[in-house]
């Protein structure tokens, strides 16, 4: 069991024939992802070889879906083309669209997210994210597949690199699914969406939630945890040492007043029973204690 992505997922890659798309399609295939096609209007009807596996290229997402039954699209296109790429996937009713691209204008994200919401069929992960991995089954994005295997921890993170670190730190337990949701001001899948899915997943025993300074997503997640999540949750908030009022790293990370600070987020999470580590390693150790307690 996993959330959003399984061994049966049929994945297409928009931008597969570009340099980033080619590199990461190779890696996704090597980790067992069932990639059934790529999309590039200028190369429709051709195929591309990846270490001996030939993957067909389609002119449109609709054609790719019709021919392959694809239910996941991973998008590796430049920021100025991202909105049109996502809208094309939404119009083709692709259930899961993973937008890796960084630097997408916020008004473009708002437009394609609204279209996805209105469709009632498409879930977006990202933009500006590492994607989603169900270890040992499928990998849609750029998360290294060899840092952790399957297990019973669910991970949702705003930060790509902290996703990788947490997976590596807890590799002795493994993960049901790890999802990097991205740190832009507007994103598709939120902490709350992932928390709900992990709560409903019978093969996820505990959840790691990684946030960062700025906005109020973590505070809202805390309220959701209190009302809806019975599984143990540990958290980490990146940015304890960041100066107030300064934009840090991700476009969504800006602090104003007490709202959005690491301390405020930690307080909100701890108030609902979430153990919060001051460092990623401390957070991993908190989860390790929980998992050891569950296996006794």
TrEMBL record:
Q: Which InterPro entries match?
A: Cit_synth/succinyl-CoA_lig_AS (IPR017440), Citrt_syn/SCS-alpha_CS (IPR033847), CoA-bd (IPR003781), CoA_lig_alpha (IPR005810), NAD(P)-bd_dom_sf (IPR036291), SUCC_ACL_C (IPR005811), Succinyl-CoA_synth-like (IPR016102)
Write the Enzyme Commission number(s) for this entry.
Answer: 6.2.1.5
**Molecular function terms, GO-annotated:** nucleotide binding; succinate-CoA ligase (ADP-forming) activity; succinate-CoA ligase (GDP-forming) activity
What keywords is this UniProt entry annotated with? Ligase, Nucleotide-binding, Tricarboxylic acid cycle
Cellular component terms (Gene Ontology)? cytosol; succinate-CoA ligase complex (ADP-forming)
**Hey, which family's this protein in?**
Belongs to the succinate/malate CoA ligase alpha subunit family.
User: Can you name this protein?
Assistant: Succinate--CoA ligase [ADP-forming] subunit alpha
Q: What is the lineage of its organism?
A: Bacteria, Bacillati, Actinomycetota, Actinomycetes, Propionibacteriales
User: Which gene name belongs to this protein?
Assistant: sucD
């Amino acid at each position: 069991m996993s959330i959003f992505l399984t061994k049966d997922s049929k994945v297409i890659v928009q931008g597969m024939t570009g340099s980033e798309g080619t590199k990461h399609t190779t890696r996704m295939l090597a980790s067992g992802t069932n990639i059934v096609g790529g999309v590039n209007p200028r190369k429709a009807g051709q195929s591309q070889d990846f270490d001996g596996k030939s993957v067909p290229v389609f002119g449109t997402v609709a054609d790719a879906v019709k021919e392959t039954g694809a239910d996941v699209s991973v998008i590796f296109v430049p920021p100025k083309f991202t909105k049109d790429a996502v809208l094309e996937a939404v119009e083709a009713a692709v259930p899961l669209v993973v937008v890796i691209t960084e630097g997408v204008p916020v008004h473009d994200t708002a437009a394609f997210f609204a279209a996805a919401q209105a469709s009632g069929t498409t879930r977006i992960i990202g933009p500006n994210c590492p994607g989603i991995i169900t270890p040992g089954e499928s990998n849609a994005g750029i998360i290294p597949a060899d840092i952790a295997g399957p297990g019973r921890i669910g991970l949702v993170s705003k930060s790509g690199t902290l996703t990788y670190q947490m997976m590596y730190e807890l590799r002795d337990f493994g993960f049901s699914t790890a999802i990097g949701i991205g740190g832009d001001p507007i994103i598709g899948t939120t902490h709350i969406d992932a928390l709900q899915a992990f709560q409903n997943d019978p093969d996820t025993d505990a959840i790691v939630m990684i946030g960062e300074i700025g906005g109020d997503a973590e505070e809202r997640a805390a309220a959701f945890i209190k009302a809806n999540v019975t599984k143990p949750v540990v958290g980490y908030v990146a940015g304890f040492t960041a100066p107030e009022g300064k934009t840090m790293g991700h476009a969504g990370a800006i602090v104003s007043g007490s709202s959005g600070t690491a301390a405020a987020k930690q307080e909100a999470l701890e108030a609902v029973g979430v153990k919060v580590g001051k460092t990623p390693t401390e957070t991993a150790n908190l989860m390790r204690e929980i998992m050891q307690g569950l296996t006794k």
